[in-house]
Amino acid sequence: MDPMDTLKPLSPNPQGDILEAILGVRDAYSDDTKAMVAFLRSHGHGLTLKGLRGYYAELTARYSRGEVRAATFNKRLAGAKKRVRQVLAQGNPHLSAAERFRLEEALSSFKSVKTGGLALAANRLPTDSELARLIAESQDSLVRALVPFLAETGLRISEALSIRLSDIAHAKGFYRMTIRGKGNKEREILAASWLLERVRATFQGETFLFEHSGRPYSRIASTDRIKAEARAILGRPLSAHTLRHYFATRLLKEGKSLKAVSRFLGHTSTQTTADIYQHDALGWEDLNDSAREALYRGGNGAQ
Questions:
Q1: Structurally, how many domains does the chain consist of?
Q2: Which tens digits make up the pLDDT trace of 104-139?
Q3: Annotated catalytic residue, options 45, 144, 156, 263
């Protein structure tokens, strides 16, 4: 059944009931519809041109501030477009032909953002000085240990928090770690001794590298703690995933191979043939930089 067919019949009451009607659809965009309606109601709008433009501007501002990722932005926007177009397709009696035309024109002008790039916009990435300040001033021992770990390994936060001590092997001057990424695919990465020893000085887990009460830390709670500390100290949120982009962007700017960086990050490549014949890899000499340790020295140790 077309989701449009499940829209509640519209009552003679105008805009308020239009919003109630579009909330009646249950599909993959239900949460996105709720977000749009919540914004429209909180700003005193109905399904109007001003309301839709305001919602798009709000989404764009949140994305620019790093509060939502590109994928979330695009899903919220797609959900809003789909639901509004369902209302327009019904020929709603509370919307004139001219209003329907203007709404459709506005929807067509709302553009999604590109996804899949290694780097974020420059104004969304932290600077070295911002990272140093965050580490030095944070009173949260998890944040002080996790932020440099993510920034210097490029790991997804879920990958970092799932590392077991049995996944780690010490070598001369660095550690090798077995990482389980998306689809439970394994890869091996290198990390500086100072980085692992910093974490171990803070958390003395028996099973996981980042452990408390015998369990790994929660991905959502850890992400929220990083965002909260960054907002309090830097005046803007900083997501765990942004640290992954920071790592990739830094190495690419330093001239490291795109293929090697992508492999280190655990990205899948569409260029299968190139992957077979081009044997690029990040060596320890690429990652062994004592200056990186000094960057975070100000916030070392648990409290």
A1: 2
A2: 898 889 988 776 544 455 557 899 999 999 999 999
A3: 156
